[in-house]
Specification:
alpha+beta, seven-stranded mixed sheet, globular, binds zinc ion
């Protein structure tokens, strides 16, 4: 192997030469491409694939990938077959907007960006199996994303409906609620509007109970599990029906059915279908004006706005508990998409309703009070139930009943009268997968005037995204694809008459909701995923990624996995057995951003220090799950640490004996690193190895190879190129990653000094530190060197008794 630098006496550590040589060798030998069919003890190590931006790899990407890579390499060193794939999340609005900004086409930019990412990822020394790469914007991948859509369609889990959505007039697309910040677009800061559009949805809501219940079985970071629970948002309550205007029924959802006697009004979403039917002539003008005003607002602002607005419809409802007439209002804080699109107003016991009542001078009735409170004391603020001692008041025969009991009893009573049913509600909505944009997989549906919507037959996939110059979105809310007749017009697959293609493309979140299933079968053109490989390699053993985008991505991946299980296509329903969220890297105490000009360029750092030093330094910044503060000065210490290992290996001798103290420290270090890496305690593992190097090199002593060889194995996951080179210098021929992991001898871990208590005339006067083999005379001498002990011993003691390893008893 002429490309590996020949070892002279003590060559200087030259990371650039070592790293490029070993990257080449890994590729040539297929070191990182295990046989998925025959490998034993499979371990699927997944990292979140990046969006290939034009700026190239961000330091945050590298922090994430390095941490996952160390974990994967460690598992391999334990003897497992580790599959560590990567790919590119290259479809989507980010790529498209960037292309528009620089006046280029995403189809030309994307391959260029992907190529740059590949180069950078190669340099970073990841144990990636490049033979299984996926690129979501390539037809070989999105053919199967479209196939996946069809599987959901077949099961009735994909449907189209009109829905009020957030619309960014500048990005000219629909935004998810979490993409709207304070009423503005997260990407471009434009004021977001509301629009009613026909869109494709997946029925995620149907899976809400299962998505929630399964969380308990997952070995995931607790913050991530809690975020999933919150997003799914289960609440128990009731549907309560109010008779409105003598002819219509309005059903509200409430989590506080016990407060029904205090319901002073009913509020409908402005879009509620009943509004036009119940509004009175006198109120029609005011209602119409309010509806116009609502349309200018985005969904998020409507929910969180502090300002209470609304208008009376003129209609009256009957409170099913009291029989009293109460007014029906419309207000923009009620959304048609949530619950039933209608709520009851209980101002005495709900803060928002209290403000609403004050704004519009509506009656406030107290129906809950603390154990000793006066049932008729007027309320100056909403009284939310605070303890189990709270009881109902002013609630007919329920008065005096404790709140928890009343929640059930009131529903049962109303249910008997046909006015309520107990329900469990979930916050999780159906997933809107439609995007009125260009850069995504076309949704494989054809609209035929005679047959209706017809799915594209599976053997006609992919529906190739046409390469068009005019891909900019316009203000129509219709995808640019509709402007391209040669693509848009197509014969119906069923009857052959000229029909129209669906012009929406699907959400990028759909591309990433199944990529882990594709990796093992990435080279297969006949199936989305091979049954045998999937059975063997999935679910993913460990998934490491950021928390910030994790809620939706993980939820959608879990949903898709459950759907495929129900379709009999796979035999598991949770995709990621173990998930760990990593922390974030800041720089000199501040968040890195282009606008602050404090972004670290990984290429420059790797040029200067080498990938191994850079990797190790990133992991040394702090606990991996918390992140750390990047400081330019810090990397020198890590580089010196690797230099010293390099020199120790090259200078090591195989003659003479090992040092007992060094070996004891070595075994303690092996134990520490072995415990820390699987727990992602990378920073403390590195600190332990640094400490060991200090002991190893004490007084620049010459090092025995048995003292340094295991250290090379320990550092290998962090500094893989240098470790390979050192391993070869130590006389090995195969990859260090196939050489196993050093074991420690528990007998070697026993401390080499002991703490001995010293008693004088039966009283403990202090302790001394001695070697574990110390004789009575040595222990006694040590005791007499401690002034606080020696002062109790005047002259020769009568007797000295040493209980080996524990106690020195001096009789005076
Ligand atoms: Zn925007
Ligand atoms: Zn047809």
């Amino acid at each position: 192997m002429s490309d590996i630098p020949a070892p002279p006496e003590t060559p200087a550590y030259d990371p650039a030469a070592v790293e490029s040589a070993w990257q080449r060798r890994w590729d040539e030998r297929g070191t990182n491409a295990p046989s998925l069919a025959s490998g034993t003890d499979p371990y699927y190590q997944l990292m979140m694939f990046p969006y290939p931006s034009a700026e190239g790899l961000h330091i945050g990407n590298l922090f994430a990938f390095t941490g996952a890579d160390i974990h994967g390499r460690f598992q391999r060193l334990q003897g497992r077959t580790v599959f560590e794939p990567i790919g590119f999340d290259s479809f989507g609005i980010h790529s498209e907007n960037f292309a528009i900004k620089v006046g280029a086409h995403p189809a030309t930019l994307t391959p260029r960006n992907v190529e740059n990412f590949r180069r950078q990822l190669h340099r970073a020394g990841l144990m990636v199996d490049w033979t299984k790469e996926v690129v979501t914007s390539e037809p070989s991948y999105y053919k199967w994303t479209q196939w996946l859509f069809l599987q959901l369609y077949k099961q009735g889990l994909a449907y189209k409906k009109a829905a009020a959505v957030n619309w960014c007039p500048s990005c000219k697309t629909v935004l998810a609620n979490e993409q709207v910040k304070d009423g503005h677009c997260e990407r471009c800061d434009s004021l977001v509007e509301q629009r009613l559009l026909e869109q494709w949805f997946f029925r995620t809501s149907k899976y809400a109970p299962r998505l929630l219940d399964n969380i308990a079985t997952l070995d995931w970071s607790e913050t991530t599990r809690q975020a999933q629970r919150n997003w799914i948002g289960r609440s128990e309550g009731a549907h309560v029906t109010f008779r409105v205007a003598d002819a219509h029924d309005v059903t509200v959802f409430t989590t506080r059915p016990d407060t029904i006697f205090g319901a002073s009004w009913v509020v409908l979403a402005p879009e509620h279908p009943l509004v036009p039917q119940i509004v009175t002539a006198a109120q029609r003008a005011a209602v119409d004006e309010y509806l116009e005003r609502t349309k200018t607002q985005d969904v998020v602002s409507r929910k969180v706005s502090k300002q209470k607005t609304g208008v009376f419809t003129g209609a009256v409802a009957v409170n099913p508990a009291t029989g009293h007439p109460i007014p029906v209002w419309i207000a923009d804080y009620v959304l048609m998409e949530y619950g039933t699109g209608a709520v009851m107003g209980v101002p005495g016991h709900d803060e928002r309703d209290f403000e609403f009542a004050q704004t519009f001078a509506l009656p406030i009735v107290r129906v809950v009070a603390g154990a000793d409170a006066d049932a008729n004391a007027p309320l100056t603020e909403a009284y939310a139930a605070k303890s189990d001692a709270d009881r109902l008041v002013n609630s007919a025969h329920f008065s005096g009943m404790p709140v928890p009991q009343a929640k059930k009893a009131v529903v049962a009573w109303l249910e008997e009268r046909g006015s309520a049913v107990p329900v469990v509600n979930y916050r999780l909505n159906d997933w809107c997968i439609s995007r009125q944009r260009y850069w995504g997989p076309p949704i494989p549906i054809i609209y035929c005037d005679s047959c209706g919507p017809v799915p594209v037959p599976e053997d006609q996939l992919p529906v190739v995204l046409p390469l068009i110059d005019d891909f900019r979105p316009d203000d129509s809310g219709i995808s640019p694809l509709a402007r391209h007749d040669e693509w848009y017009r197509v014969p119906c697959p069923q009857c052959g008459i000229m029909s129209r293609r669906e012009t929406d493309v699907s959400d990028t979140f759909l591309d990433s909701a199944w990529y882990f299933l594709r990796y093992p079968s990435a080279d297969r053109t006949d199936v989305a995923f091979d049954a045998a490989l999937t059975r063997k390699w999935l679910p993913v053993t460990t998934y490491i990624g950021g928390n910030e985008h994790a809620v939706l991505h993980l939820l959608y991946s879990r949903f898709i996995t459950m759907v495929l299980k129900d379709a009999g296509l796979i035999d598991f329903e949770e995709p990621f057995t173990r998930f760990r969220a990593h922390g974030m890297i800041i720089r000199d105490g501040a968040k890195m951003s282009k606008s602050k000009g404090n972004v670290v360029n990984p290429d420059e750092l790797i040029d200067r220090w080498g990938a191994d030093s850079f990797r190790t330094y990133l992991m040394f910044l702090g606990p991996y799950e918390e992140g750390g503060d990047y400081r330019d000065s810090g990397i020198t210490g890590v580089r010196r640490f690797l230099d010293r290992i390099w020199a120790s290996v090259h200078d090591s001798v195989s003659t003479g004996a090992v040092d007992a103290t060094v070996m004891r420290k070595l075994h303690a270090t092996i134990r520490k690193v072995t415990d820390d890496i699987p727990a992602l305690g990378y920073n403390t593992a590195i600190a332990a190895m640094m400490e060991y190097v200090n002991v190893l090199r004490t007084g620049e002593r010459s090092v025995h190879r048995d003292e340094v060889a295991p250290l090379v194995q320990l550092v290998a996951p962090f500094a893989p190129h240098m470790a390979e080179q050192c391993w070869e210098v130590l006389g090995h021929t195969g990859s260090i990653f196939d050489a196993g992991w050093p074991t420690f001898d528990p007998a070697m871990l026993v401390a080499d000094t002991l703490t001995i208590a010293v008693q004088i005339a039966g009283k403990t006067r202090g302790t001394v530190q001695v070697g574990r083999d110390a004789t009575q005379d040595v222990v006694y001498a040590a005791a007499m060197e401690e002034p606080n002990i020696a002062k109790f011993v005047a002259g020769e003691p009568k007797k000295v008794i040493y209980v080996a390893g524990r106690l020195l008893n001096i009789v005076v």
